[in-house]
Design a protein that fits this description.
Helices cover about 75% and strands about 5% of the residues. It is an all-alpha fold. It has one domain: Rhodopsin 7-helix transmembrane proteins (Rhopdopsin 7-helix transmembrane proteins), CATH 1.20.1070.10. The protein has a 3-stranded mixed β-sheet. Helix 2 runs antiparallel to helix 3 and helix 7 runs antiparallel to helix 8.
Length: about 325
């Protein structure tokens, strides 16, 4: 059989649970999560795009992060919710290809973006006088384009390498969406080269980003420790606290899932951990950034006041 020929025309996604009595509960739970993720990230995206008080590089990157989180959850959850409604866990071969690409793309870009956001905080705290010169609007756009292109190339590589394999027997994906590792388990060909590609990409992209992020925070902490006043230290650290929280959750889940020996691979465990970086983290991102950020909360109040004011102006006179 040729390696680029696939007999399987559709896959069956087993989901998080194989117990039908839990379907209603799972549907309600993930519908709620998806709604919160969409609303929260849309609010952040609108605020960072329209409010002049958030017209800074930090919030430009935060808006991009929210856009990526919307893409990430939308690549996974709508299909998952539909399967509960239609009582069908089938996804077409092409649909699986599209889902894998549109999931791995924002994930790869987000790795790079979190690294850029750490560097942004380092410049803001360590070299505030040159911050506006180094991280200006033009630089932000160039960075956004660059990391998007790199993330796209990474996603295309993973998608091509995964679906060039023959799938000719079992078509049941032991996961809740089309992920690389569960798909490799189904291929009726040697997947060693694919696993090398996955591991290499994750080491180069994931570990390099992780190390660069850690290096930025080493310099950040060193700078903060030199600040004499306790209030100054508190303010400097508060600008990084939300980012540190997101980075810790994101990298913890990704490293557990991808960067470990093949002998330790457990798809059942992976399904649970995958919900963290694929569903929970994108949902918590806007909550963490808004609850811990006075500027975001102030911007939200300004938008609400403008909406109320405009509604009052356009109200019919009795």
């Amino acid at each position: 059989m040729k390696a680029n020929v696939s007999i399987v025309s559709e896959f069956i996604i087993l989901g998080l649970s194989t117990r039908p009595e839990l379907d209603t509960f799972m549907f309600v739970l993930f519908l709620f999560i998806y709604t919160v993720a969409l609303i929260g990230n849309l609010i952040i995206l609108i605020l960072t795009s329209t409010d002049q008080g958030l017209n800074t590089p930090m919030y430009f990157f935060l808006g991009l992060l929210s856009l990526l989180d919307i893409c990430c959850t939308s690549a996974v959850l709508p299909k998952m919710l539909t399967s509960y409604v239609l009582k069908s866990k089938v996804i077409s071969f092409n649909g699986c290809v599209a889902q894998l690409f549109f999931f791995t793309w924002p994930m790869g870009v987000e790795l790079l973006l979190l690294t850029v956001m750490a560097y942004d905080r380092y410049i803001a705290i360590g070299n505030p006088l040159r911050y506006a010169t180094i991280i200006n609007r033009s630089a932000c756009i160039k960075i956004a384009v660059t990391i998007t292109v790199i993330g796209s190339l990474n996603s295309m590589t993973h998608t091509y390498c995964t679906f060039r394999l023959p799938y000719c027997a079992d078509n049941k994906i032991n996961h809740f969406f089309c992920e690389i590792m569960p798909l490799l388990k189904l291929a009726c060909a040697d997947t060693y080269s694919n696993e090398i590609v996955v591991f290499t990409a994750d080491v180069i992209l994931g570990m390099c980003c992780f190390l660069l992020t850690c290096l930025s925070y080493v310099f950040i902490i060193n700078t903060i420790m030199k600040i004499r006043s306790a209030e100054g230290k508190r303010k400097a650290f508060s600008t990084c606290a939300s980012h540190i929280t997101i980075v810790s959750m994101y990298y913890g889940a990704v490293i557990f899932t991808y960067i470990r020996p093949r002998s330790n691979l457990s798809l059942d465990k992976d399904k649970i951990v995958s919900t963290l970086y694929a569903v929970i983290t994108p949902t918590l991102n806007p909550i963490i950034y808004s609850l811990r950020n006075k500027e975001v909360k102030d911007a939200f109040r300004r938008v609400i006041k403008r909406l109320v004011h405009n509604k009052a102006q356009h109200a019919p006179v009795m």
